[in-house]
Structure formats: structure tokens, C-alpha cells
Amino acid sequence: MHYEEKTSCPHCHYHGPIQRDFGYRRRKDGSLHPQSWCRICRREERKKRRLMGSPSRKY
Ligand SMILES: [Zn+2]
After folding, report:
1. Rounded to the nearest whole angstrom, what is the distance from the C-alpha of residue 41 to the centroid of ligand 1?
2. How many other CB atoms are found less than 10 A from the CB of residue 55?
3. What are 30-45's pLDDT values in tens digits?
4. CA-based R_g, the chain, Å
5. How far is the CA of 13 from the centre of ligand 1 (A)?
6. How many Cβ atoms from other residues are within 10 Å of residue 9's Cβ?
7. How far is CA 49 from the centre of its chain?
8. 3-class secondary structure for the chain?
9. pTM for this prediction
10. Ligand 1: distance of its center to the CA of 18 in Å?
């Protein structure tokens, strides 16, 4: 596979393959754009927001 683009996360500075560790986002016009944050940071951020926004959902 020659299509292994890499990028780095501005949040945790992790550097890795986009497809596996970042993922893509499809825009309305159908074009794909790599996520800027890695999957882990996005998940953490979502968790944080959920904790702040709505009360109680402990894991
Ligand atoms: Zn990250």
C-alpha cells in the first residue's frame, strides 16, 4: 500500500498514519479531509465535554 499518509496531532504531538489513528471526515461536497486530532484526543475531548455539559454519566 502506497497510500499511507501520516500526520501529527497538534494536541498530543503523536505522529502516525491518518487512516488508522486519525480517520477522515467527509465534507458536504464529498471530499475527504484528515482529522486534525488523533482518535484518542478526540475521544478524550468528547468525554470531557460530555462531563461538563450534562451531569452524571460515570464510566
Ligand atoms: Zn492526539
Report:
1. 4
2. 6
3. 999 999 999 999 999 9
4. 14
5. 6
6. 19
7. 15
8. CCCCCEEECCCCCCEEEHHHHCCEEECCCCCEEECCCCHHHHHHHHHHHHHHHCCCCCC
9. 0.72
10. 12
